[in-house]
Amino acid sequence: MTKLIDQNYTDGPSPCQTVIGRVEAVARISAQDRREQLVEAAIRVMSSEGLERATTRRIAEEAGTTQGVFHYAFQDKNELLTAVVGAITLEIEKILRKSVDPKQGLAQAINDAIHGVWSYVQRDDGLQLMQYELTIFCRRTEGFEWLAEWQYARYAASTLEIFTESLQGQKLAITLPELTNFIVAAVDGLIIQYEVLHDVSRTEKDIRNVVTAACALAGISPPKRVTPLL
User: Fold this and answer.
1) Of the candidates 56, 74, 92, which is a domain's last residue?
2) Which burial class, exposed, middle or buried, applies to 227 when counting CB atoms under 10 A from its CB (0-12, 13-18, 19+)?
3) Which terminus of the chain, N or C, has less C-beta within 10 A?
4) Residue 58 domain-assigned?
């Protein structure tokens, strides 16, 4: 019996110490941090490989953890997808905030908001395709229709909030919510067109046209500064 346990561990930790170390390392990651880690991994996998290939096993692998840990953090893949949509929506809200200075007025806010979104679009084609896949999935999956509606409503609400701050008492020819809905719909169309054609020159012209049309619709002067697409 003595021989079975009489081993020399002077060159490294014992098996017991190794197991304890691993347990302590896992314990140091809070449940919220683990969820965020898995959401980020899911976004990377879905962007590069597509929604269908983003299995719980593949996502856990990308996050450097196990399926057991995945199911501890999320009940199932659908719960994870809800968190992914929330994370992406929050990121776009941050981009809008970073791109727009409300003190510059509504016309400039319209221009800068659209260009801010386009900078985000051009950084990662896969990320945009993933968002369309998620939208289609939510629309086709019973019980998840609300998530697609919530995502779209959140985009519009975030844009409306920024435009409201930029209005500065200006009188518009249409209501601000109507103007916002027009811009959000126009940008959605431009994103789909760009993802299909990848024609930057055409997109530049179309963005200028959307800004011009939005200002004309609102009955305000166009922006003094036109932000370049690239």
Assistant:
1) 74
2) middle
3) N
4) yes
